Structures are given as C-alpha cells and as structure tokens.
Amino acid sequence: MQNILVPIGFTESAQNTLQFAIDFASEIDAKIFVFRAYSAQSKAGTMINIDSIIERETNLYLRTMVKAVDTKNVDVKLIAAKGGVIDSVLGIDDDLGIDLIIVGAKSNSIKEELFLGRTAGSLVKQTDIAVLTVPENYKYAPLENVLMAFKSGVIKSKNVLKPIQFIVEKFNTRVNLLLVKTPEYTQEDLVIDQNLKQLQSTLTVTENSTTFQGVLEHIKTHNPDMLCVFRRKRGFFKKLWEKNTVLKEEFFANVPLLILKGK
After folding, report:
1. Are the CB atoms for 77 and 92 separated by under 8 Å?
2. 22 and 73 share a domain?
C-alpha cells in the first residue's frame, strides 16, 4: 500500500481526517495525496480567469490544512482538480494508482442524521477503490483487532482482500470473521474462501435479518479497532449503495470502517 488519497472538504472534521490518514501513512511508509475538486463557470464578458482564481484558492486551502497537522515526515502532495469528485478521483487513480481512499464519514454534510455524507457515499458507490471512512473526532490507534462482517464466503475478485491482507501483515492484526446467515443465504455462501480463511483469528456464524443486524449483535463482544465489510451486489449495504448518503438509522459505526471493493 503506497498511495493514499484523502479528499478534503470544508468541515470541522477535515483536519482530524487528514491527521488520521497521515498517522496511518507514517506507520506503513505510504504517500498521502490531499485532494479537493473544484468547479467554476466563467461569466460572459468578463476578463477575469475565474478558474485560475478558484484553483489558487483551493491550493491555498489545502496548504493551510496540511500546515495545521503534524505531517510526521510523511510525503504529502496536494491535488486541486477541476471537475467532479468522482471523475477526478478516477483520473488520479489512472495516473498514480491509488491503493486506499481515507475520507471523513460525514464529509461535507452538516446533517447530524447522516453517517456517510454525499462525498463518502459516492466514493463507495461509484469507484472500485477501497475506502476507509473515519468517524468524527476519531484519533488514530494501531489496528490490533478487526471485525470483518459478511454474508457470503465467496470471493470472486482476486485483489479485493489486498488492503486487509496488508494491514494484517503490517500490524499483526487479529481478524474476527463474522459470517451472517441472512434469510436468503445459500449453502455456497457458507463455504469460506481459502484466502479469507487465512486471515481468520476467530470465526462466528450468526443468523440475522441483515448483515448490519449481525454487526450490531456482535460488535461489543469483539470491541474492534476497525470494522471491515465488502461492497458487492449481494453483500453488506446492498440497499444503502443505491444512494450517495447513508443515514445513521440505517448504519452507524463508531470505529473506522474499511469497505473492500475489487477492481
């Protein structure tokens, strides 16, 4: 894991998210790319280059954010991109190869009822890059204990497990697998992929109406430093990914949430 992208919004938690990302990157010797997208529409008849002004202001904002945190000798680079967030992220990934996106759970939203804001939600829904969401005011701590929840042990993508495999190798992390048997499960779902088995410290099999209900039932028992789930068509958040925001009443985690996706 070499390149970490950190989208930055205009929120009070943005600085905390960036510090978390830098603290994590310092542990694994990764680069941080602090990113913000901007857009502008020139007014007819004006001589002012609005784009260049907004680009300059965006870069100034990013520099101010970086100066406000402890960079811990991490290689931090700034990216101000004109255009939409998703198109910009996809372009950055094509150019640099992004291994992980770290983003604040609420992003730019100030709505208290939201768990994932529009930016975080759209990054999960519309990209194939693993996303690590950070709760508000959460301080980085070594990832010693992870709860990995899923309702099917089938792994079809060759690289979907790379982020969690890297974390386990780097931090000697304990991974507690939680297989949730939902009403529509098949026998195939109960067969755990060998690569997933290799991550296993413990295995719990539970029956719940949804994967999230299984997490709610067992998260206090395991007391994880991080929750890990898959984003796939019949996996965790199946209904939630239909939109770009997630309400706290639909899902909430008070620890970082790693969402795995295979390219």
Report:
1. no
2. yes
Shared domain for 105 and 156, answered yes or no, is no
Q: 25 φ, ψ to 5°? A: -65, -35
The C-alpha atoms of residue 236 and residue 9 are separated, in whole angstroms, by: 26
In a domain, 263, yes or no: no
Q: How many domains does the chain have?
A: 2
> Both tokens of residue 30?
């990764």
CA angle 120, 125, 115 (to 5 degrees): 40
Q: Judge contact between 234 and 244, C-beta under 8 A.
A: no
DSSP run (H or E) holding 59: helix 50-67
Q: Would residue 158 count as lying in a domain?
A: yes
Coil, helix or strand at residue 155: coil
| pLDDT tens by residue, 67-94 | 999 999 999 999 988 878 888 899 999 9
Give burial (CB, 10 Å; 0-12/13-18/19+) of 160: buried
Q: Is the dihedral of CA 221, 227, 229, 231 positive or negative?
A: positive
- How many residues does this entry show for the chain? 263
Angle between helical axes of 50-67 and 14-28 (0-180°, round to 10): 60
Q: What are phi and psi of 146, to 5 degrees?
A: -120, 135
- What whole-number distance in Å separates Cα of residue 14 and Cα of residue 9? 6
Domain with 227 in it: 145-256
Share of the chain above pLDDT 70, in %: 79
H-helix or E-strand spanning residue 23: helix 14-28
Q: Which two tokens stand for residue 109?
A: 């939203």
